TrEMBL record:
Keyword check for Chloroplast: no
Molecular function per GO: NAD+ binding; prephenate dehydrogenase (NAD+) activity; prephenate dehydrogenase (NADP+) activity
Pfam families: PDH_C, PDH_N
Xref: SUPFAM superfamilies: 6-phosphogluconate dehydrogenase C-terminal domain-like, NAD(P)-binding Rossmann-fold domains
PROSITE patterns: PDH_ADH
Name of the protein this chain belongs to: Prephenate/arogenate dehydrogenase domain-containing protein
Top-level taxon of origin: Bacteria
A GO biological-process term: tyrosine biosynthetic process
Domain Prephenate/arogenate dehydrogenase: 20-299
Keyword Plastid: no
InterPro entries: 6-PGluconate_DH-like_C_sf, NAD(P)-bd_dom_sf, PDH_C, PDH_N, Preph/Arog_dehydrog, Prephen_DH
Family statement drawn from the similarity comment of this UniProt entry: Belongs to the prephenate/arogenate dehydrogenase family.
Organism: Anaeromicrobium sediminis
Pathway listed: Amino-acid biosynthesis
Length: 299
């Protein structure tokens, strides 16, 4: 069972970032955008960890993050850790650095698929620490810190995945951070339900865009208009990242592909039979559903 909470009240009061040391692990498109958005909210300290020291230096020079001491000291002083790596890399980082982590640390992430990552991380960390999954529904076709944008999360949906062990006060912290970076709709759900739903809203979209653009040929280039560009925009993706996402959520993605193929089959058979009624019915159904989505998303 999942629920949507538009507000979440906590008696401890509003979270102020000036009370917290925050560290971001992975300073690419999402991590860099997160850092830039957090910077305008003045956390006590905002640090980052990345294997590319040039990116770290650039972020410091741009005043996006604060200068770091050693990684071990930074982790020990961090109150909120935001993991912006691939799921397996998130797990590996936390396992390898467990002894350096603040005993009261709150950990969140930005992964587009949760799988068993949430449970595996909770099995690693100490009981005094908490991992609360997060997923900002935002991105762009390019990757890397150079493409990061402090407004990337403005007005986006932000999914927070919780488990029974999570406490209200720490869920509240993650929710407030999501709001402070620009999200205007916070959705609370379970890791399992998250993966089921994004298989349709995100993962299937990338599969279809990729299959569709692979259907084209050079002769068609001069015939491309807005509809082609709209449908294929997300085909310009990070192949390694998206291969990992799709494989990690393959059962849900395959289920959505099956349903998509059924809808394609209906249209295909209607065309074969010159069945105007069925074809019109399918197109009208899609038009109505798209209109309903527009109305819901505008509120």
């Amino acid at each position: 069972m999942w629920q949507i909470y538009l507000t979440l009240r906590y008696n401890g009061g509003r979270t102020l970032l000036s009370d917290f040391n925050i560290t971001i692990v992975g300073l690419g498109l999402i991590g860099g955008s997160y850092a830039k958005a957090l910077r305008r909210n003045n956390p006590r300290n905002l640090w980052a960890i990345d294997k590319d020291q040039y990116t770290i230096k650039k972020a410091i020079d741009l005043n996006v993050i604060d200068e770091c001491e050693s990684m071990e000291k930074v982790l020990n002083k961090t109150d909120i850790l935001i993991m912006c790596l691939y799921p397996e890399d998130n797990i590996k980082f936390i396992r390898e650095n467990l002894t350096h982590l603040n005993k009261n640390l709150v950990i969140t992430d930005v992964c587009g698929v949760k799988g068993d990552m949430v449970q595996r991380i909770n099995n690693i960390i100490e009981d005094s620490m908490e991992f609360i999954g997060g997923h900002p529904m935002a991105g762009r076709e390019f990757n890397g810190f150079d493409y990061s944008d402090e407004n990337l999360f403005m007005n986006c949906n932000y999914i927070i995945t919780t488990i029974p062990e999570n406490t209200e006060k720490n869920i509240y912290k993650v929710k407030q951070i999501a709001e402070l970076i620009g999200s205007n709709n916070i959705i609370m759900t379970t890791p399992r339900r998250h993966d089921e739903l994004v298989a349709y809203t995100s993962h299937l979209s990338h599969v279809i865009a990729n299959a569709f653009v692979n259907n084209t040929n050079e002769e068609a280039n001069d015939f491309i208009g807005g509809s082609f560009k709209d449908v294929t925009r997300v085909a310009y993706l990070n192949p390694y990242l998206w291969s990992k996402i799709l494989i990690n959520n393959k059962e849900n993605v395959l289920n959505e592909i099956d349903k998509f193929e059924e809808n394609i089959k209906i249209i295909k058979e209607a065309l074969k039979q010159d069945d105007m009624d069925i074809l019109c019915s399918q197109l009208e159904s899609g038009r109505i559903k798209r209109k309903e989505i527009n109305l819901r998303c505008s509120h």
